[in-house]
């Protein structure tokens, strides 16, 4: 760990009283204090992990609905997934209603459950995204009147939050509400009910359903519109008693990095709510930038969008600056890069690895920060009484003495004196 570049509010200090199983102090002994995970959520889209977690079913069915990668190759997928877990401890899983439940009453619950459980086994937190959104909505909802649509939306939230409780306990409850009631690209069921209920009214209802289904869950509101309109919406929701646990902020920067000044300005405007901030969807490009005249990023459709050496160097520099600024802010608890590999959303070179799994400079830079600079793996020595002062980045640790291992978690507000048995 590089103390000089690690924010002090990310570090915890505690005295360990180390004994053997008979309660005798382990005196003047060198021990390894080894970090195994971060408390901070360093995240990335986990869409590719679905492929590996459901490999048996995919091989059996030769399904095409889960992958954008041609010619499913299990070794290729495993290599990609292992590279993901080498850096990240947090991933977003897709629950877009139209894809998750393409036929009413037949959700792809087992597929997502397999993925979330696999992530948990490998020490990563899974977040579901999203429970309510006007885009990628289920077409079959359009067969119903607005009251029925709303009823089915609430039922969907109860079902999925309950089904995944204990495996997925973090959700983007509602996505992109600022534009939701005025969205006019095509008719959809959720825009209809948002017009009826109003933004705050709909947010209140869907959050209440999520909270009722999992009282201990972490529930986010999420948006790409970071203007004053989003602040007004959040303020109205909080005044209405909506139990928002964290504010989701998207920064899809296909037209260029926003820069330090703009990023700090965004942080300043949203920190006054006093809620945890999650940078939920972030993209930085390693090729030519999308033209400025494009208003809706989805309107930029290209067959090829190559990564370039110059762009890759720029992307690494931008990711480093953005990570340092966000990690330094005490209210930021999570940062998610949206695309792990190039060629996902909009076919953009927005990943940390290329389509062939080649690592890009941004991957190396983030890994060095997360698993080296902000990572603790040190040798400590107990005193004559078996006590030792340890200091490390908040997260999970092992205290190791040969074959004996004790697990320790450094967390905010923890007891400062712990008895550890080895």
Unreliable residue stretches: none
Mean pLDDT: 95
Task: Report the structural category.
Answer: alpha/beta
Helical content stands at: 25-40%
Question: If you compute it from the alpha carbons, what radius of gyration comes out, rounded to the nearest whole angstrom?
Answer: 23 Å
Tally of extended strands? 15
**Sheet having the most strands:** 8 strands, parallel, barrel
Describe this structure in words.
Helix 11 (309-328) links the parallel strand 9 (277-284) and strand 10. The protein contains 12 helices and 15 strands. An 8-stranded parallel beta barrel has the order 3-4-5-6-7-8-9-10, surrounded by 4 helices. It is of the alpha/beta class and 422 residues long.
Short summary:
The protein has helices spanning 47-53, 55-61, 74-85, 97-100, 109-121, 146-163, 189-197, 199-213, 228-239, 259-271, 309-328, 361-373, and strands spanning 11-19, 30-38, 41-45, 90-94, 125-129, 170-175, 218-223, 246-253, 277-284, 332-337, 377-381, 387-393, 395-401, 404-410, 417-421. With 422 residues, it is an alpha/beta fold. Helix 8 (199-213) packs across helix 9 (228-239) and helix 10 packs parallel to helix 11.
Indicate the topology.
Blueprint (H helix, E strand, L loop, with lengths): L10 E9 L10 E9 L2 E5 L1 H7 L1 H7 L12 H12 L4 E5 L2 H4 L8 H13 L3 E5 L16 H18 L6 E6 L13 H9 L1 H15 L4 E6 L4 H12 L6 E8 L5 H13 L5 E8 L24 H20 L3 E6 L23 H13 L3 E5 L5 E7 L1 E7 L2 E7 L6 E5 L1
Parallel strand pairs: 1-15, 3-4, 3-10, 4-5, 5-6, 6-7, 7-8, 8-9, 9-10
Antiparallel strand pairs: 1-12, 2-11, 2-13, 13-14
Helix pairs in contact: 1-3, 1-5, 6-7, 6-8, 7-8, 8-9, 10-11, 11-12
